[in-house]
Specification:
4 copies of one chain form a homotetramer.
Chain A: E1 5-7, E2 11-16, E3 22-28, H1 38-48, E4 65-67, E5 71-73, E6 79-81, E7 86-91, H2 112-120, H3 135-146, E8 154-162, E9 165-166, H4 187-203, E10 209-216, H5 230-239, E11 244-249, H6 260-263, E12 267-269, E13 275-277, E14 285-286, E15 289-290, E16 295-301, E17 311-314, E18 320-323, H7 337-360
Antiparallel strand pairs in A: 1-2, 2-3, 3-7, 4-7, 5-6, 8-9, 8-10, 10-16, 11-16, 12-13, 14-15, 17-18
């Protein structure tokens, strides 16, 4: 079962609502002896946290993580994991419930609060309760632990499309990521997005986006041929992110238009004796199992439903009405989805790394 | 863990290789008292089975299913499920292992046999062993049981793109599905595809495709807000299908380019007193929970790597070589993926229906 | 996987060490709309908490529980569950790590710290870390939620043997449970135990015990015939309690000596039209499924290995040595195991109740 | 979820009824490259199969196993596992449904058919359907695979009590096991049991028994401190066996009467540099983790409810009646439970071996 847990041998369980006292993540199955301090986690939380530019929600949260269990001082005086569950907790601080008073009885079109109400017969209308993107801070914390599980793993994400504007892949420069508030690897696209998002923000509107996550250093052999597929679990992880509406691996949807000749990633032996692929349409995964190439995944997020323009909707009493969202507002939730996507990919890779080691004895 | 099982309260476990004596599916968790005979399953297997037109592999398999457990004659003389595991078995008949002799020691570029070998240190090179699409017959059998679990559920699929050719959605007619060998809902597109696939087949090439699955009669409330999301599990199910490289729900990747105003599915109360959505960009799922609208999912499959044109590759001894595939050949695996996609969506819905009923007591 | 989680549709995940800042329990899958406050949980924690009599460890812990998520004020103003994960947290207060300094490098014979060290290559020697009975407070908190899930359920426990002294079942009086510090239903046995445990305590020794848990109001039909057996999961839950070495259901080990005639629980229709059993050797479970009779389970706990008398052992450097435990000390861990056993039985019943409702639609 | 599956990284899923065409077991997660033929499995099935002496049911089943998937001829020509699911199937042959006609509408007191009917609303009354001990042949087949997963593992079982007659542990001789029809390690006890069981059989009565399973060669470190306890999973596995009513590890229930001094297994360094325990009250498991000593588990089975003497019961129409069982009859189901208990212990150890290797990287 997986209501609020994700993963098997390496598993996260998250809890907490947008406007409760805290949110948290329990990381289970982490191998022992891995150096881990709050500082290892905080950097990733800082990337995700709101209010860092005018393009994301103005909620102010320090998002300070505490490790409440699962680490101990090793012989050498370093704090390391013990193999037991690592409880991570983040206090909520800037929860303004009053902002939500006017949507207490109305369903925002395109928002989870309608289905939530249908399922549970009640809902925590303050900032969407459990359906809030606030939960994703807990994943990012868990993902920071996951990154340390697979030796040599590096997981990086980038925003590659905002509204109708895609990056030019010829301009891709990972170093640009930190030079703009969008995690954009193309400096030119970042400038276009800045203008576009200014306009979106001023209108109180919102826009969708596409995020790409690339993992280097993934050992070959992770995954399984049928329902334990690595790409299946990556897609599951990315689709579990708020607002995600599509996921793809490698060439993805574009592969539908390719011929077998074009799509096949040919191989040659490198002079150093290791097999080499001449392309990566596969996105690093064939038959559900990693090839050793970089794993490449993308996911699309829809525009947030919290917008200033009034939309037709119904209320909890079953009457027609209109709703617009006045509180704090995220013109493009895709920006903050970048570190979240990285976290989910890292968690899946950590889980499959341990599963693979378990079943085959390979490191 | 999920190497070869899928689902939780309703769960399938499949087994079998392309060239072994049989394949099978164990369906666990099916509610008791549901009428079930082999005939209920056979129709779906017949839709998927190979050799039905010149556009799919010429392997001839009757794909006759046997129910080996889990049913019993009820008081009324009808055969019904008993609540215990339903074992479904399909004998393999047309397995020509010799066809594969020449690729025994070479890895097809873009094919699972390379990663399979890396992971397990050996591989069943006869027809790809476990990585063969043959496994999907077992899912289709399991999916036929799943369809009977949710009262009023109808799950239908269609091919909506073959190579570069998409259907015209204005021409969509479900009745056309059975009038062409492609499960194509657009009669005009079907003619274009026929010509295109003739050409592909003659060249010994292959092409990708996009499949759409639509489920009507899905009760509202299935799913959960975080890792038990209905869309997450549908994507996981569809990505577990051989050759799948991307999945999307509702507006999917297109939602990245939409504004919040465009994307929001507005609502009105129907005169009959039920809430009504004015559009379905959500694909029937908001915040991971079903809305009661039709659930709409699409997935892209890549072209098969088994093509006549020689491609550069390496062999199991670590030398450079070339490979082309001579045996039977599937110019567009996307065609047969239609009933497979339907099966996976049905399985996810059955599982979530039972989980929802368990947690909330709602039917 | 179940390193630190227990249950399926209703699932607890616990975290925390004896000497860390806190311990906690995440309850996942709880149905929505159930009234729940801290007070509902605190009473059970108070029964378990240490330092309540001279017969249990003198560690002083208020064991105050906080609910950090998963509840919300309902329309009527009452705090109810929302269907999302309920995070329960208990701060550690009286952790005297210095007490353990002298056993930092020695393994107590019969204690988890040896195997813990072998498995993880390190250990949190302060109060046994994760292997401490402190973790059981988190279960008791989770169990308090579980008790509210099955309508009409009552789960009660009693100590029925301390060292060699069993109760006289003819004297069983549930009202006696609260009249002595042992949860003993037999006033006479309680007096014998008091003398015996005084002696054990003065010697710095320890003793084993047997606990019985009885659940009334269990609906018929919970469980499954093979690996989803209700008794199997109860035994799994009880064996997961620290120091447990044996579990039994109904007549248990005594049934080995019975004849089929003696063991069979005969049935008659009650004048009110309901079936009635004339005995309960089955302990309320036949073929893995509840009968509707009270569910009766027992488990044995060994004496704690923390004793004053020196025992031969080895140290972490691989040398022979001796060890005795000086810190705070629990002469009979079986006493506090009573509310813990109740909690585990309640958790299993809640899980199976939801699973049964999911699969069969029965309430 | 675990209705019909058992285990995590190494998992069995069984299916089949007593009177259906076949029963089977799907083994998932078995490491690749392990030599495996039908002969490796058949020997264990032969030990369990009915009709081997006058002391077990006279049903005649050859219990011939077929491997339908998951193995392949390796380079060296040997048949080995491939890492994919191993489907094992056993045809039913001697199913005399007519024997059961007279109990079609009556519930045998102490038998699963009452609860089965309550849960599912119907039942396969022919030989108890899914609740039949016939299912255990599937486990024994799966257990034969499990035995090959842990290098150096040996799992042996013995009957240690029949009715009121226990063995004398001083007479224990593993070589005696094959010299009598009871898997009895004490030649003298075997003679007592023969007389006792002759009497039981002639009266058409039945008796309970206790089985002990001992596993040598268990690596230290398997298990986890809380809900992934090795002993917890062994107890779960043994309690899942038909008629089991109690389980214990090491000193088990007897440890309740021990003092801490008696119970502690003291340690010394062996001259060869390895730690040595001076006793094994722990049964090879401390704090849920294996110590490296032999793992010792026992379980009690109740007498079968199928007896010749009429017992009071009710019928499906809700009337009072009496029932006696005339068909084939098993005076002591404990005898055949010996290889079944071995199988379950082997399966748990295989699962934990792979889990431990996964989490810690230790072999």
């Amino acid at each position: 079962m997986s209501h609020n847990s994700f993963g098997h041998l390496f598993r996260i369980t998250t809890w907490g609502e947008s406007h409760g006292p805290a949110i948290g993540c329990v990381v289970d199955g982490c191998p022992p002896g891995i150096p881990l301090t709050e500082a290892d986690i905080q950097g990733y939380l800082d990337k995700r946290k709101p209010g860092q530019s005018k393009y994301t929600t103005q909620r102010k949260e320090p998002d300070t993580v505490e490790i409440l269990s699962g680490v101990f001082e090793s012989e050498g005086g370093e704090q390391v994991t013990t193999g037991t569950p690592i409880a991570l907790e983040i206090k909520n601080q800037d929860a303004r419930s009053k902002d939500y008073g006017d949507i207490k009885d109305k369903f925002r079109p395109g928002h989870a609060d309608y289905t939530y109400f249908l399922k549970y017969g009640l809902r925590d209308w303050r900032g969407s309760g459990r359906a809030s993107a606030r939960e994703t801070a807990a994943r990012v914390a868990g993902g920071a632990v996951a990154r340390k599980v697979v030796p040599g793993l590096r997981v990086r994400g980038a925003l590659v499309q905002v509204g109708p504007y895609e990056i030019d892949r010829g301009n891709w420069d990972w170093d640009e990521i930190d030079n703009n508030p969008f995690f954009c690897p193309d400096a030119k696209a970042a400038r276009v997005w800045a203008d576009f998002l200014d306009e979106v923000r001023k209108k109180g509107s919102s826009t969708g986006a596409v995020i790409e996550v690339v993992a280097d250093g993934v050992p070959a052999g992770l995954g399984a041929p049928v329902y334990g597929k690595l790409d299946q679990d990556i897609c599951s992880g990315l689709m579990s992110i708020n607002a995600a509406k599509g996921v793809e691996i490698g060439a993805g949807f574009a592969s539908a238009a390719l011929s077998g000749e074009e799509n096949a990633d040919e191989m040659r032996m490198h002079p150093n004796g290791t097999p080499e692929f001449l392309s990566n349409n596969a996105g690093g995964i064939l038959g559900g199992i990693s090839t050793g190439q970089p794993v490449v995944a993308r996911f699309a997020v829809k525009p947030t439903s919290s917008i200033l323009t009034a939309r037709r909707t119904i209320d909890t009493a079953g009457g027609d009405t209109e709703v617009s969202t006045k509180g704090r507002h995220d013109p493009c939730v895709g920006i903050r989805a970048v570190p979240i996507g990285e976290a989910m990919v890292a968690i899946v890779l950590a889980d499959h790394y341990l599963r693979h080691r378990g079943q085959t004895g390979q490191d």
